[in-house]
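Model the whole thing, not chain by chain.
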Amino acid sequence: MKKQNWVSTGYIGLFMAFMYAPIAVLIIYSFNDAKGRTFTHFTTKWYKELFRNEAVMDALITTLLVAFIASVIATVLGTAAAIGLDKMKKTPRNIIMQLTYLPIVNPEIITGVGFMLLFVAMRGLVMRWNAVAGTNWSFEFGLLTLCLAHITFNVPYVILNVLPKLRQMDYSIVEAAMDLGCNPRQAFFKVAIHELKPGIMAGFLMSLTYSIDDFIVGYFTTGTKHQPLSVLIYSMTKKRVSPEINALSTVMFCVVLFVLICANLYEMHKEKQTKQKRKGGTAF
Amino acid sequence: MKKLTSLILAAVLTASMAVPACAEEYDFSNYDLEYYQKFKGQDIELNVYNWGEYISDGTDDTLDVNSMFEELTGIEVNYTTFDTNEAMYAKLKSGANTYDVVIPSDYMVSRMMHEGMLEELDFNNIPNFEHIDEKFVNPEYDPQNLYSVPYTWGMVGLIYNRDMVNGEITGWDDMWSPSYTNNMLMFKNPRDAFAIALFKLGYSINTEDPMQLREAAELLKEQKTMVQAYVMDQIFDKMQGNEAALAPYYVGDYFTMKEVNDSLEICIPAEGTNIFVDAACIPKGAANKEAAEMYINFLNEPEIAAANIEYICYSTPNTAALEMLPDEVRNDPIRYPEAEQLANAQMFVNLSEETNLLLDQLWTEILSDDADYLNWAMPLFVLGALVISVLVTAMRKKRKKKYR
Amino acid sequence: MKMKYAAYPYIIWLIVFMAIPMGLIIYFALTDASGAFTIANIAQTGRYMPVLIRSIWLATISTAVCLVLAYPLSYMLSRMQGLTSRTLLTLVMLPMWMNFLLRTYAWMTLLEKNGIINQILGVFGIEPLTMINTQGAVIMGMVYNYIPFMILPLHSVMVKIGKDVIEAAQDLGASPASVFSQVILPLSMPGVRTGITMVFVPAVSTFVISQMLGGGTNQLIGDIIELQFLGNAYNPSLGSAISMVLMVLVLLCMSLTGFFDDDDVEDRLI
């Protein structure tokens, strides 16, 4: 038994070393005095430079903004869709579910290329409309196209998170609410939504993660200004990644680490509380 | 969850407050304010598309040209970069974005000109064109000089690491020397790569003869087995970090690399080399043509042109800027060679559409060809795929039987 | 209740932003510049057969490596208790929060000829190895970037294998080998299938990893697609044709793994 323990600890350790080696490199190089990949002196100047670098800051804001907007809209759209799908007949539901899987299982490059073709076509249509009707509409690649694309690949994650919760939901409490005088809307917002909350939250968080992490779809749908961080980094990897980016990722890594630790501690705390409550025999 | 949201919001807020706080003060007394400030307060934006790290950007106490232009004119510059002429061309052709100023190389200027992708310039709005050296006016790629204003020029040289080569590096033949197997880098764009092979073969680098091009492609395939990597600007990190012994690249960038790694040397091959000009143009459909011309004019202000040249180390066609450069730069035979040194140098011109297509096709072939590994991978893969699909089908049938 | 109307906005969204783009790809793949029907584009993709085979080959190897590495790890994690298991799983997922371009770029620093690994090897007197710009480096990059997509579905099926099931098998006299082959393996198959798809699909279509770690000498099908749209020349017809070939390939992969056979596939996707 002990030997087995030793083997599994060693294996997990090696695996973690593999996963964290490049991250360690990133963090170390954020303290590198020289640009490029030769380490010279220790410095913290890139952390100061970071906040003065307009391009990096603009990219960071763009990434966070797009992720936030896209996740919010995707959550609303996806939750509504899940509720509707749950009530649909089997055949139409299956067709829609197959389409829903598409952005998840489709190679990202194809999703990206498809969006590029779509937005180019839309842009052409808008321009033609302007010529015909004399309007002055604009459809530029940029924040708008990024958001549209991100919403599209985020919605499936929300649906996939909410649907199981809908299936588990006890409809009798919704019916009870309606018997007590709620109309369907009130019944949903006052009762059902509490049952769905964990699924909705999980969907929102996943959307946020995938949006922040996205590169390929953004690469094909970005415009001339407000490029997302990953696209900026990509254009930098063609020459050299400026150390400010390393500093930024170190900061982001620490923030995420902090949030995850907090979340874990919070959950532990909650578990302890429920255990204690059970011990004390006090029900809810 | 709420914590995460508020964290993100807080980050967005602090970041958005941090950005505008860093506007700097410049002295604009030397500039024609009446001309430069006519668009002030009109919320005009310019989309500028340039090569990566091809403008003085304010790092290490250099001049931040874009922010200076913004400050002077009140025009907002959206600055993005590309890494090959071909990538820039594709992006423009896709119609995804409109750009106001692009800076392609000679042959790409004439290709875009022939395809009607460029806007004719109004030189009344570019008074600084007078600074351009006569040698660069009415160039072969833009014979009447209607579409372009030269930004930089230079040659292609063979960069090598003194400590990593044996003997002397003399010319393109060294790029086929087996002693540098896995120790050489190569251009990752078709025109530059083919030019080297064509020089070695003694053909014109603008040949339209399919036989000659195929011959060059064979040569490049032969070279591929010795090439460590096909790169563009990644060459900086690699040559600076002693990762490779040999790499052909633009002379200007050699000086940038030499600042970091003193072991680097350059050779201008005797067989001849490519001499290029990168020129500012305005693509068709630019939203603010006049403002774009203002930007091009600004790039040719002597002080600005000199700052850019000092930052990127290329050669300048701007005589007024040249005078502001230190003597050792002006007299550098590699940066500013005499006419006789350029006897064998050739410039790119645009090729016919068929030749461009053939070149693309041959180039993709070179990059994707990998003959010796295919011999065993193909049968193995087919066999593997067959076995897997048979197994999967069999397993599924068995399972279905079980449940019945 | 007319709740099903709630899905209608989403259906419209799906049509506009999912069905039409895919339709556009098919349209461009099957038409020439003037808009007339042609199969010339698809025929042209035959030229890229070697690239396609290389992509499938490298993706297959990296999927296999992912499976071999992730399977024992997921099993170990699933046998652990509350806090340890959760912390370790978080640690596995945490790197995904760092930009994957940067992580891949960092691998360049590690694998280079004068890179960190070779410097460490040099201390022990080992000759520097050629690691970067090889197919091995590309495979490693794929494994590194996509292994979490293998661990997650595996872990989520394995935690459901109760201790009692394994103990029951042992009590009935099963050897460790047959416990594995008769109990654990069959029960974890749905996770294996999802994992294979989730790793194979991004691996076969990547273009960044091959560019950064392959040195441009190991082009993949994703590189060729990217070249058609944002690289060499704007050629949406050929690009769409190659995309279509890739889509067919992915469909084939999913039918082989029986990706949609199980009803609860969504449990393992998220």
